[in-house]
Amino acid sequence: MLIKNFFQHKSVRRFAILGLFALLLYLTRSMFNLILVTFILTYLMDRFQVFISRKLDPIVRIDRRAIIGLLYLIFVGGITYTLYRYLPVISIQIGELVVQVQHFLKNPPDNAMVLYVVELIGKTDFSSYMKQGADLFYQYVANIGKVGVQFLLSVILSLFFLLEKPRIIQFTSKFKDSYLAVFYTEIAYFGRKFANSFGKVIEAQFLIAVVNCVLSVIALWVLDFPQLIGLGIMIFLLGLIPVAGVIISLFPLCMIAYNVGGFIYIVYILVYIAVIHAIEAYVLNPKFMSVKTNLPIFYTFIVLIFSEHFLGVWGLIIGIPIFIFLLDVFEVTTDEDEKDETTNEQVG
Question: pTM of this prediction?
């Protein structure tokens, strides 16, 4: 009876179901890539569709399924064309970037400052990280068939979900009056929290990474940097990592800058990184991120370290969104939230 009463508490029941859901995800960890890519693709495409519909509805009303179909045609067509046209070029350029960075580390110029920086990088074993990243890329290229099948399944599942979204919602709501009503209520609660926190942070990270990549490639093109496609991909992928991605990208960019134009180009790169970071901090983050995502940098790095340890490369990308989701579930408020609540109480 005591145990039964214990689980009657809403908070206990809620977190017990969350634990069961986390256990289920752990048991299906071999399908983690499929699940995660499907969710991210579904969320982003749904947001694009809603945005386009809002812009077009005052002018001409277009069926949402037609917009979704067109979005997926453009997406799949763009991916296919890019792989067919640029995959060999991308592979060569990334290989050249890795060789260039490793050559710089093994044969640094005779300068006290540069030698100190190279020694510092050597202590962090940065070259091995570069090699691991390149090996991971080549591994994906080598397993292009398996990766391609998983990606295709994600696209198909995402497309079918969005095309039948109203029917899926209607069918799922039937569980509300079934023997699984308790699970339905709690999963629906976590689903809303997940979409409003994890989904929005992923969307913001994606948009910020795209903007950073475009601005960076333009700046590097002006400075006449080589391997622009490879550098653009590197900057975009690192841009998905909050805060740390900017710092990590500094090392290879400064090395290449020194080879291209000496110390003056390193100064240009540092100025450009400072400008990009300022744009991200004062323009992009306030526009794309919610107030709840303003984590202290210490927390950001701690989360990234632990999430990379437990989730690997994916952890660097989804670690912060998962942490924000947990903060939302535990109803941890930020200083800004508390100020807003105090203001509302004073007004009231």
Answer: 0.71
